[in-house]
Amino acid sequence: MKITALVVLKPSAGGAGGSSSSGGQGSEALVLANATDVSHFGFFQRGAAREFIVFVARTVAQRTQPGQRQSVQHEEYKVHSHNRNGLCVVAFMDDHYPVRSAFSLLNKVLDEYQKAFGDAWKAATADSTQEWPFLMEALTKFQDPAEADKLTKIQRDLDETKIILHKTIENVLQRGERLDSLVEKSSDLSAASQFISKLQRALSFSLHIV
Amino acid sequence: KQQDQERPRMESKEAAAAAQAEEDLLRDFERILHDDPLIDEVGFLHPTQFHSLLVDSTDKSTSQYFWCVDHKLAVSSSILPDLYRAARRAHSNATLNPSSSPSASDAALIMTHSKALLILCADLLTAWNSRKMVLSTNFNLSHLKDELRLCALILSYSPKNESTWSHRRWVIKNLAQHLQDMPELIDKESLLVKDMAEKSKMNYRAWRHRCWLIPYMKTKQVLDELNKSKKWAELHVADNCSFHYRRSLLLALLDGAANREDSLICQSEAYLMWKEELRWNETLIRRYQGRESLWNHRRFLSQWWVQHLLSCEETSLSNESLADLFLSQEIHLLSDCLGAPGDEFGETRVQVELAALYILWISEATSSFTNPS
């Protein structure tokens, strides 16, 4: 089963909504670590795919409250997000990766991140460029959900936690927020990617009418 | 009156200039294709995206509509209509007088123009056929291998294109008549399908191509394929095509058991494979809730298994019915599914439905075996 990306982020304390990644009021989450595998995309789509992943990760992480777990359906991906005490992990998996296994993996990533970097992330004010090999290895190792299931020592714990489901990414946004404006304001997406995003949405809108 | 005479001349001059521009585009395109025979991916990019490619590129290529680096070719979509028109015209001219033995230069023109045309529109059967005509004049191994490369190139952006898959099969049939090492060729084809399937899910045409190769396989390769494709199927449990491929392989084993010299080996291998497949399928059913393709696969496996057990019983001395034992294990699976705790994703409910349908189906199937009416 494909894990396309694992991203560790620090949601900004200022609340959701905004444009830049450099802090300040109404800002978006900061990226602390990022492992992405876009090899299954066509060569010419990989750049845009990477950009979209960062954009969606930031958007979802910023709107995941501490202690919350949520899963968002976005095209053919499920985006899983877990915020533990202000440190957030977002995973992009294909539709058939069992959700509980996904959250077992997210737990593991959070544990490992704190082991590797302690609390240094709390002081972060910008995206981190630091390499974290564990994350890339995890992408490959946990492609098989059976590996992720081995991580959960006490299944009961996970069974009892509530996971919020969202059918679309729009449902994650706060009241009054629109995906279009977030796309436009985002510095993650190049002009070309923004154009593709608009085109996709225009096309899906026309499909709904039919 | 002079103005009336001038207007058509002006228009025909403009038309001629436009046609020349189109031909220049085609010439550039064909030159790039010729200079790099190892191109393995083509992208048709919107001008905005194409522009950012040019900007990022360190190698300032001379063309403003084509970009080719490291065997990856990008074409700006703004020129596609013109390019297509030019390719179509050129190909038509080259095939005006079709001959079963074209001259070398005519053949070269047909191949060049059809290649350009097919990359732009892979559905043109006339173009594919013109290539077949040229290739049929005599057997040329390296040309046929080039053909496979062209198909792979088109499939890289059109993985479900039936005309391309069909042409690929024509090439393989030709190769099969002259080649000794079919197993290696089949291995490569299987690998190609696997890579395609990774990038385009539920690609029925790719998997059907893989199934088409099975009759060319000897027993050993069938067993190898079953082993090699197992992990992939396990990691893509919603992709019914990969399980269909496994079913075809298992059936080939049974066929071998009935018809071939190594039939005893086939039969014992089939029995072992079947048993293992049932066990593996159950593990997956328990792990991935509500996956219809897994239950479909189980129906296929159980059907033959029950028939096999019943036929064994006829010659067995024991009182115990192996078929009954198997069925009670299946009911045990059903009750486990019924007892699983509900979840907010609705998957357990689907699992229960599928399990119940399965038990209904198999009890009917079994009674029809034991009481054929």
UniProtKB/TrEMBL annotation, chain A:
Q: Which PROSITE patterns does the record associate with it?
A: LONGIN (PS50859), SYNAPTOBREVIN (PS00417), V_SNARE (PS50892)
Q: Which InterPro entries match?
A: Longin-like_dom_sf (IPR011012), Longin_dom (IPR010908), Synaptobrevin-like (IPR001388), V_SNARE_CC (IPR042855)
Highest taxon listed in the record's lineage = Eukaryota
Keyword terms, alphabetized: Coiled coil, Lipoprotein, Membrane, Methylation, Palmitate, Prenylation
GO CC annotations?
Golgi apparatus; membrane
UniProt subcellular location: Endomembrane system
GO terms in the biological process aspect are:
endoplasmic reticulum to Golgi vesicle-mediated transport
Q: Where is the V-SNARE coiled-coil homology domain?
A: 150-210
Membrane topology per the entry is: Lipid-anchor
Chief subcellular site? Answer: membrane
Would the keyword Disulfide bond be found if you checked this record's keyword annotation? no
Ranges for domain Longin: 7-136
Q: What is an example of a GO molecular function annotated in this UniProt entry?
A: SNAP receptor activity
Q: Which PANTHER family match?
A: SYNAPTOBREVIN HOMOLOG YKT6 (PTHR45806:SF1)
Record family assignment: Belongs to the synaptobrevin family.
What is the protein's given name?
VAMP-like protein YKT61
Organism listed in the record: Aegilops tauschii subsp. strangulata
Lineage of origin: Eukaryota, Viridiplantae, Streptophyta, Embryophyta, Tracheophyta
UniProtKB/TrEMBL annotation, chain B:
Task: Tell me its family.
Answer: Belongs to the protein prenyltransferase subunit alpha family.
Q: Which PANTHER family match?
A: PROTEIN FARNESYLTRANSFERASE ALPHA SUBUNIT/RAB GERANYLGERANYL TRANSFERASE ALPHA SUBUNIT, PROTEIN PRENYLYLTRANSFERASE SUPERFAMILY PROTEIN
Q: Is Nucleotide-binding given among the entry's keywords?
A: no
A molecular-function term among this protein's GO annotations = CAAX-protein geranylgeranyltransferase activity
Q: Does the keyword Zinc-finger apply?
A: no
Extract the Pfam families matched here. Answer: PPTA
Report the transmembrane regions from the record. Answer: none
Q: Name the GO cellular-component terms.
A: CAAX-protein geranylgeranyltransferase complex; protein farnesyltransferase complex
Database matches in InterPro entries: Prenyl_trans_a
- Enumerate the SUPFAM superfamilies for this protein: Protein prenylyltransferase (SSF48439)
Q: Which UniProt keywords apply?
A: Prenyltransferase, Repeat, Transferase
Q: Which domain of life is it from?
A: Eukaryota
Listed name of the protein: Protein prenyltransferase alpha subunit repeat-containing protein 1
